[in-house]
Structures
1.
Amino acid sequence: MEGRLTLAGEGLKKVFNRRTVFDNVSFSVATGSVLLITGRNGSGKSTLVRIISRVLSPSAGSVRLEADGMTGADPWQTRIGLVSPYLQMFEEFTATENLSIAMGVRGLPFDSARADSLLERVALYPRRNDPVRTYSSGMKQRMKYAFALLHEPPLLILDEPTSNLDEEGVGIVRAIMEEQRAKGILVVATNDLADVGRFDAQVDLNERR
Amino acid sequence: MAVKILLGVLLTGVVVLGFGLPMSPAPQSWYELPVIPGLEEKARIIFFHVPTAWLSVVAFLTSMLFAIQYLRKREPIDDIRSSAAAGLGFMFCILATLTGAVWAKFNWGSYWNWDPRETSIFVLLLIYGAYFSLRSAVEVEEKRATLASVYSIIAAVTVPFFIFIMPRIMTGLHPGARGDPEGAGPVIEFKMSPNMRVIFFSSLIAFTLLFYWMFTLRVRAARLEAHHQSGD
Amino acid sequence: MSGAEMTPGRFLRSVLAIFLKDWRSELRTRYAISALLMFVITTIAIILFSLGSEGAPADALSGMLWVVIFFGAMSGLSRTFVMEEERGTTLTLQLLAPASAVYFGKLLFNLVLVLGLNAVTVLLYAGFIAGFVIRNVPVFLITVLLGSLGFAAAATVIAAIIARANTRGTLYPVLSFPIMLPLLLTVINATRLASEGAFFQEAAGEFQILVSYIVVVVAISYMLFEYIWKD
């Protein structure tokens, strides 16, 4: 992992069909911190998450992910992990295959031993050879965590982190969040503050219209 | 204002002279148009058919240029311009196809023959049709503008291929095409007499001005509508 | 996470992974392959019945082959993008891979699909349609190969456009036809030449056009793909 990582957003604005979803959103967090994004349903939390994940371009403003010693064009794909209700797995494939696909498409080598231990951690190991479409919604949510973590991203973005999860699942997620906070940057978008615990910076989209 | 008046005068002049001036085999005076063997009275169509065909191509190129501009700068006004130009181009393309078909009926006996130029204008018509079908299928404005721009660029890139392909595939019926029996190519070979040329080029200029005028009107109208909708 | 830049080796791995994902998914469900085979068989059967005992002139038969291929392409080549939209995995791919890797991976998939489909089509067509005779087989084979590449190139980029436009079915042929027309005219002409037994040199002009078409379409698609793919 590189040295200190910084995630910074400046003057972010998004307009859909001439309707402004949010405007003038700025933030800056570094390794070891948590950015919390809050807002009513429809206030644009998921939209902002998409912009930070670099799958959506802002109408104005910019997002930067910088690290000491980071070089090369568009390194974002391998530095981000995303868990979101909008992110689907490749459901015709098994859990192990999904992880293999994820690494392959990211251009990274697949370490099946590490994949197995990660699946173990999210309590999916016994079902690892079943197609994801046979999973319950809680299992799918946990699968998304495995999907997001196998490549050890310095930036982890969680949109509604505990949706569909039972108590055991929530516990797993809390542990993951603690770990991520320690070694990288954690971004959490949620309205349930119990999800996140301590945080270092906040963007509240309720005020931004 | 002055442009409008000039345009009105030019167009009226062209229409009157184009249809009104008599044709005779050996023109005596300035107001007599020569008879082109093989075309005779039907030659009058030159004043209208060729400019509309010309404009449908110009409009397409204009639309494509604004499409490139939109992709680079993402300013909605560029998409408005691109779409306005394409709309006009579509209209002129339909006119060109219809005037061409009418003339074909009189000259060759049937409305459509798949000669290279006819095929080309037909392809242009298809491209315009496809372009507007695509636009009407996308609801989100930014996506609509982006996809339409991309499509018009792709279409524009494949059009030059026709220039190389057509001559290989068929000989043409159009005056001036390869295989034209009497070499009656009034435009390419400039068999037009000076007075015909005056009317022809005036028509070309008049139609181009018409295009430019309609284009600015459409863009202005679209901008007004956009402002009105967003409640400015 | 060190060395996370997208090197050429990584890029290639990404392209292959995307191709293999689509390929394996297809093998698993066999949805598209069986539908396409049925399409080709049905279409050729219909042609056989309509021709009856009279047959048709050789030129028409050359053209008709490519009509079947065109509609086969329209039936099958949009699936690779439309499927991602339907399953909601477009976002997943946008997250995992650079846009151009997605383009090349899916282009590769469509290439393999159309080559297989056209091989079957040509075999069935040449086998069952009596009037269709090829006197210069190498010219014909090269035509089918280059034509397939051309179809894959054009069909892939248009498929990406209609998938992102969230439209179904009917818009795909409408958008594809004007783009593919230069390709169609050239391959039909080349097939006619092969059917008449023309020498390679005579068809060389058509091959040149085909190769330039492929290069131009792939190049422009590569340059524009990011605009289509990303929001």
2.
Amino acid sequence: MLRRIAVRLASLVGVLLLLTVIVFLIQQTLPSDPVKSFYGRNTSPEVLAEKREEIGLDDPIVEQYTRFMERLVQGDLGTSLRTRQPVRSDIGSFLPATIELAAAAAVVAVVFGGLIGILGSRPGRGSSAMRSSSIALAAVPTFLAGILGILVFYRWLGWLPAGQRSSEVSASAPTGFLMIDTILGGDPRGLGDAALHLIMPAIALGIGPAVAIGRTLRASLRETYSEEYIRTARAKGVAESTVIRRHALRNAVNPALAMAGLQLGLVLAGAVVVEVVFSWPGIGLYLSQGIASSDFPAVIGVVFVLGIMYVLVNAAVDTVQLLIDPRLRT
Amino acid sequence: MSATSSSDARASTRAATDMPPVASVEDLHVSFRVDDGTVHALRGVDLQIAQGEIVALVGESGSGKSVLGSCLLGMPPRSSETTVSGRVEVAGVDMVDDDDRAHRRVRQELLGAVFQDPLSSLNPTMRIGRQLTERGADIERATTALRDAGVPEPERRMKQWPHELSGGLRQRVMIAMALATDGGAEAAGPDAEKNDGPLLIVADEPTTALDVSVQAQIVAMFDRLRREHDCSILLVTHDLGVAAAVADRIAVLYAGRICEIGPTSAVLSNPLHPYTVGLLRSRLSIDGSARPVPIGGSPPDPLHPLRGCGFAPRCASAEADCVEVLPDPMTEQGRTIACFHPSTVPVDLRTNAVASTGMPTPLPKDGERTPRSDPPGRPGQIGHLARPVSALRLEAVSKGFDVGRGSGRNRLHAVSDVTFDVPAGGATVLVGESGCGKTTLLRMATGILTPDSGSVHWPSGGHPPQLVFQDAGASLTPWLTVRRQVVERLTASGVPRAERNDRAMDLLTKVGLDLRAARCRPKELSGGQRQRAAIARALANDPTLLICDEPVSALDASLAVRVLDLLEELRETLGLAILLVTHDLAVARRIGDEVAVMYLGRIVERAPTDEVFDNPQHPYTRGLLDASPTAEPGRLAPTLIGEPPTPFDIGRGCSFLSRCSFSTEQCETERPELIPVTAPQVACHVRPFAAVEV
């Protein structure tokens, strides 16, 4: 079992290496000229060529990649062309907001996914109504859901704020996670405020994955209910709710978990959109601004960090699957 | 072959003690919704089970026997519309009308359940111990239950996962789970002071998925458990042999009604209901003198209500009243039958013969053919004859597989050094338990797998052998009509377009399917018809050899007999050679010229069929024969202990060493080869039965 996890972690290194190659190649093939955008359009071609030579953009590609890797290992992602700050410190200040949002969205996805899956798998009781309404929900694009949410809950009902992480504009410290910082600082009002700000973006981001997870879980549970060991459990006089919880869920959850891991990619991609819609100060917003201004190092940095998050979470999902099903361990 | 129990004596003592029945079923009707309509699964069943009694519930598939078992557990089939009427009472609790909580309590404290497939009836993600203690039994009690059920090293098993155990062990764990009822003080029941284990165990086909040798051990264990725990057992089975071995009474279910109940020996030796007679006569037996006679026709459609007796259309003694009026069960001298014209002539189980007033050959129906009345000559000497041409020859073939990864990597020796041939037009049966390598051998014979060493020969110019699988439902394409599937095969083997349809109909007629069946999709056909369609498809490219992998083990006895008859007939009319693989010795007796017994990747005995059955030489063959159920009441003789080991590290010695009670020093160090060259060939140093040669 531990060996399996060790093997999994080792293969993770390989995946991350591949990620660096991909990020590097994207950098090489992008049409925009980073030198030109850094030094401005009016710089003379001679100066540009000189600068290009200076940064080593004319060197052989393998050499460039080696240099890229050297810097990466030192945690150097370059300097943002837009903010003129190291990308690493930029990401460091924007990432907690994104992680907070993604985590909240993941909670929405798992809780609603679980509900859709479990309730939908039971016969009768409006399971088809729930199925169609959940499909309708999932069909709404993230940006539209965000805008509609703002329209309804902010503009008309006035229940929820329209954007930002909190009502006061202040940097979050010490962790950068507003929910945690307000708890640490003994600020219940701040916590409530942060939670209110989080609700709408988290739901907009999490509802699509929730439906995907829910439908996978539902199909998997239905199949599991017809298994012989479920009949065995019932024959032992186990109560139906316990049958579901103890016997069916654990055997049915693995496909849903795999789906959850895959959906995280969509959450991270969706975060860019949601952060723009809700003016959420995370790396998604940073990325979209970076793209608009051809801020090449910033884009590369964000893509790399998101890639690492995606790979890590899926490795975690694989490990959890091993814990859940002993048959996978051998 | 000693009878360890006398079921007659037991049954009479039970009757004498005037205790209330542990479970009673009165006028039980159960119906449930399926896509095509409402299935009438039970149509008025009455049954009482006394304390400490084993009642066997026998019947063909679809007779409703599993539904009756489920109802006793208070778990009728789930559907969008299930109707249950009548009474089911277990230990004084109404299992139909009382609320779910009461049913659960009875199940938790008083009932045990054992299901057919031990591979799927244990929760794969829960340790054995946790599953055993789920009903409230403590660890000590659970461990005792495991020991009771014959599980070695019970303490260690408690911490294991189901997939770490063999099939036989898993079924023992299931039985232990049935024994490990709630040990709490509040357990109710007629004799609460006793409270050791369940009052009633419902065992639904508990041995069907097991190997023959393991089956015999489990059946014998049921008898022991019943005596030690004084619990009752409802044994649901399709196999009269299993029922005969342990049951006090046999109840025969047909089309949702019990047509006959009585003491085991009485029912077996003097069946009164024509259906019981039919079941007994259609049984495939290892006893060569009894030639099985299938019941013609098929059971009534469960979607339609019954007007008269459900068996009347298939019954030779049926008269006008049988078709019009449903016969009510009548009890006389401890035997209950529901028939207006019961059979009066005892069946001789040895020969399956009934006097002239008995059953004439039933009418053919629905594409199922009746067998020819005369058995084909069994050329038992074929092993001695100079073999003209072989339809298949395997020369010293071996095949192994690497299993596992890294340091856990291991070599599985599936087939080791096997040599044998199937003569042209001959029929060879390969017998063996699960994991003996028979499937790997078949795959090499058809060319799907390449042997690691050795060679496979087909006759030059001939077509490669064709395969027929156990589950025809799964091997036929579900969305194509049967005729279309045969046509596709013909197309593939280059038959001109104009001839294909005619040729296809020709083939389908040969296997006994008519035009109506030819136009059906597999789902619309019965199990027997599907297997015929699979055979027809296999015949399409004109093979010289048909390889059948467990072709009848998913079929009811009557259908199995008819499919075997068909194979025999094809062999005669087409000159087809047959290689048939089975775990069931009774099937081997029915069809083969020659039997090869396989154990742990090797052939341990090979001889003409009658020779193998009448005078088995290898201890393993002898053990298998002893373990095969017969319709002899109270015969419990498992002489084969344990289960076949997994073929990983095969030592230098005899492969059967670990289960053999005759082994000597030589057996440990030297692997026996097949000797002599003439039949029978036996791979055994000791040959303990050589002296009893006839």
